[in-house]
C-alpha cells in the first residue's frame, strides 16, 4: 500500500495547524505511520499462514481463524489511520476555498487565508471533533471485535466443521502485543492532543469574544 497521499495530507495540514496540532501531526506521522509501515505491517503480514491448529480437518483452521480474527489487525489499523486523518481535509479544502475566492474577486479578502478564525475556526473545530470521535470509535470497535486489547498464545475453537474442541496457536504473540499496546497508546495520545487543542481553541475564542465585547461596552 502506498502512503504518499496520507503523508502529503499531513504535510499540508501542518501548515495550518496550531502548535498542539503540529504535535498531533508529528505523532501520527512518526509514531503511527512510520511504525506501521516499517515494522507492524511485517509482523502481521503472514498471520493467517502462521495460525496453526492441532487438527487437519479440512476447513477447521480457516473457520477458527475467521472467528478469532474477524478483521485483520493490520487492515484495521490501516483503516483507522486513514479515517482519523481524513477530517483534516476539511481544513485544507476550506483554505483552498478562501484562496480561490480571493482569485475570483481579484482582491485581498483575508489577512491570511490559512489563519484559524471565522469560518475556518468552525471547520477546524469540526475536524477535531470528528478525529476524536473516530479515534474513540475505532478503539471501542477493536475492543468489541477482539474481546479486549490482548493477543493470547493459545485459543480453543469448537466451531463446525471442527469435530471437537481444538487448540489453535498464534505466532509471535508477545511481539504482536508490544506493537498492539504501542498503537493503542499512540491512539490514546492523539485523543488527548485533540481534546487539548479543542479546549485551547474554544478558550482562546471565548476570551477573544469577551475582550471585544468588553472594549465595545467601554466605548
Automatic annotation (TrEMBL):
Protein name (Swiss-Prot/TrEMBL): Gap junction protein
Domain of life of the native organism: Eukaryota
One MF annotation (Gene Ontology) recorded for this entry: gap junction channel activity
All copies of domain Connexin N-terminal, residue ranges: 42-75
Membrane-crossing segments per the record: 21-39, 76-97, 118-143, 178-203
Subcellular location: Cell junction, Gap junction; Cell membrane
InterPro entries linked: Connexin, Connexin_CCC, Connexin_CS, Connexin_N, Connexin_N_sf
Subunit-level organization: A connexon is composed of a hexamer of connexins.
Recorded family membership: Belongs to the connexin family.
Functional note: One gap junction consists of a cluster of closely packed pairs of transmembrane channels, the connexons, through which materials of low MW diffuse from one cell to a neighboring cell.
Chief site of localization: other
Entry keyword set: Cell junction, Cell membrane, Gap junction, Membrane, Transmembrane, Transmembrane helix
Location of the Connexin cysteine-rich domain: 134-201
Any one biological process term the GO annotation gives: cell-cell signaling
One term under GO cellular component: connexin complex
Organism: Urocynchramus pylzowi
Membrane topology: Multi-pass membrane protein
Gene3D superfamilies for the chain: Gap junction channel protein cysteine-rich domain
